[in-house]
């Protein structure tokens, strides 16, 4: 897949940004268009880091750790049985032996030292008594009555020391790092914390986001459409994406009047309570595009024309906050597909930067076989694809048949973005790099 590798002399993208998105040069014929890596570098520049706060572990799902967490306990805290069975000494079993049952141990009950030449009946998770060094599963054991009302168990041998025993600290050893700062807490991570008895954890505060989808033509679902109107799909779509990326949407007005004054007042109000403002549409130069002059009246704005498809226009700016700091502004195109792709390419890494979460900063990259063909012009394309295993076991990318930037159905069910460099001819069966849309 040949590309023009000439460098933009005015941009110096960071290596990580360039590696993430695969396009660090302005392609031939794309004068005035900026590479994606340059926009990402500008997006990340001088990002505020969210302060830390302590929250209950039960409320910490999806939050990002603000400090390393070290284990204070061994897990398991003592040797225990990994199945229902009988515990004995390997030496007492030999090639097989009848041993009296000297105690019964259930999970959660204390064990006493194992008497010589005896066995203990025990259950999954039960503590191994001192002296015991093997567990024989109950299906292999035969029982019979012995003298004096005792019960004898036939334990076949020979056995191997340690069989069916989970040793102390096998999962987690006291003092070791349990979770690293920057980890986004999923179900397994929460389980590890609870296994240490932790009730609270120090995490980054969620990024508070104000979201605006502008345009008098937009109305909310449930209302009858009038001529010239369309339903607002961006507000709920982007709100859900931001939430999935760990943000808290604190303001998402249904309607902002399409005037300069209303837009300016809405942005000024948002700057009082948000860490980040995201807008959709209204950043062009038309007479009805009020977002751009409103942002410039309250702060500063840079408009980017990117060498990517979909989503060529991108606005990056800041608004002076009454708190004395500045609030970042990201203006996405109003086209729903462009907004959706922009959410993955720009909002997700920005939120990762603001919470110091490496998992959010970069989308995972996969090289798979293309089950489609494509040709690009001067812009890098991001095709919406699903992933499936081919008949020969290789992973394949299947492109949605209609990749037009107005076709939001191409995003529903998409599992990855296939990155096609500019001036490239991709044939069926070629290798293609995909950005995995990890939800």
UniProtKB/TrEMBL annotation:
Presence of the UniProt keyword DNA-binding in the record: no
InterPro entries named among the record's database cross-references: MoaB/Mog-like_dom_sf, MoaB/Mog_dom, MoCF_biosynth_CS, MoeA-like, MoeA_C_domain_IV, MoeA_C_domain_IV_sf, MoeA_linker/N, MoeA_linker/N_sf
E.C. no: 2.10.1.1
Domain MoaB/Mog as annotated: residue spans: 210-353
Coiled-coil spans in chain: none
Chemical reaction(s) catalysed: adenylyl-molybdopterin + molybdate = Mo-molybdopterin + AMP + H(+)
Alphabetical list of Gene3D superfamilies matching this protein: MoaB/Mog-like domain, MoeA, C-terminal, domain IV, Molybdopterin biosynthesis moea protein, domain 2, Molybdopterin biosynthesis moea protein, domain 3
Family annotation (CDD domains): MoeA
Enzyme class: transferase
SUPFAM superfamilies: MoeA C-terminal domain-like (SSF63867), MoeA N-terminal region -like (SSF63882), Molybdenum cofactor biosynthesis proteins (SSF53218)
Pathway assigned in UniProt: Cofactor biosynthesis; molybdopterin biosynthesis
Swiss-Prot/TrEMBL cofactor(s): Mg(2+)
Key words of the record: Magnesium, Metal-binding, Molybdenum, Molybdenum cofactor biosynthesis, Transferase
Family the entry assigns: Belongs to the MoeA family.
Function according to Swiss-Prot or TrEMBL: Catalyzes the insertion of molybdate into adenylated molybdopterin with the concomitant release of AMP.
Name the UniProt record assigns to this protein: Molybdopterin molybdenumtransferase
Species this chain originates from: Cobetia amphilecti
């Amino acid at each position: 897949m040949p590309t023009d590798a000439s460098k933009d002399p005015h941009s110096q993208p960071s290596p990580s940004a360039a590696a993430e998105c695969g396009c660090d040069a302005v392609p031939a014929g794309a004068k005035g268009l900026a590479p994606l890596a340059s926009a990402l570098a500008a997006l990340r520049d001088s990002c505020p880091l969210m302060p830390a706060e302590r929250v209950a572990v039960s409320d910490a799902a999806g939050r990002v750790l603000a400090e390393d967490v070290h284990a204070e306990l061994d897990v398991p805290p003592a040797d225990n049985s990994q199945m229902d069975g009988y515990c004995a000494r390997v030496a007492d079993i030999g090639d097989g032996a009848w041993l009296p049952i000297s105690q019964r141990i259930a999970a959660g009950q204390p064990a006493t030292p194992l008497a010589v030449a005896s066995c203990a009946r025990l259950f999954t998770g039960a503590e191994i008594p001192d002296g015991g060094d093997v567990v024989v599963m109950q299906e292999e054991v035969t029982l019979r009555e012995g003298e004096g009302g005792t019960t004898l168990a036939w334990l076949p041998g020979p056995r191997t020391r340690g069989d069916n025993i989970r040793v102390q600290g096998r999962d987690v050893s006291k003092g070791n790092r349990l979770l690293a700062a920057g980890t986004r807490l999923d179900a397994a991570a929460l389980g590890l914390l609870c296994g240490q008895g932790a009730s609270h954890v120090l995490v980054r505060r969620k990024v508070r986001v104000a979201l605006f989808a502008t345009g008098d033509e937009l109305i909310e679902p449930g209302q009858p459409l009038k001529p010239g109107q369309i339903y607002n799909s961006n507000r709920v779509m982007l709100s859900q994406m931001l939430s999935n990326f760990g943000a808290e949407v604190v303001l998402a007005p249904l309607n902002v009047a399409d005037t300069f004054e209303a837009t300016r007042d809405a942005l000024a109000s948002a700057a009082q309570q948000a860490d980040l403002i995201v807008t959709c549409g209204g950043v062009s130069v038309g007479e009805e595009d009020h977002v751009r002059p409103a942002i410039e009246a309250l702060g500063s704005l840079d408009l980017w024309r990117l060498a990517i498809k979909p989503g060529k226009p991108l606005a990056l700016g800041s608004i002076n906050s009454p708190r004395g700091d500045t609030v970042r502004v990201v203006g996405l195109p109003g086209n729903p597909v462009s907004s959706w792709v922009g959410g993955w390419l720009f909002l997700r890494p920005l939120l990762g930067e603001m919470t110091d979460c490496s998992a959010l900063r970069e989308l995972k990259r996969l090289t798979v076989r293309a089950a489609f063909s494509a040709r690009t012009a001067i812009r890098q394309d991001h095709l919406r694809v699903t992933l499936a295993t081919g008949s020969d076991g290789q992973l394949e990318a299947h492109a949605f048949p209609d990749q037009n930037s107005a076709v939001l159905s191409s995003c529903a069910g998409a599992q990855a973005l296939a990155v096609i460099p500019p001036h490239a001819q991709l044939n069926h069966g070629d290798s293609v790099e995909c950005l995995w849309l990890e939800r």
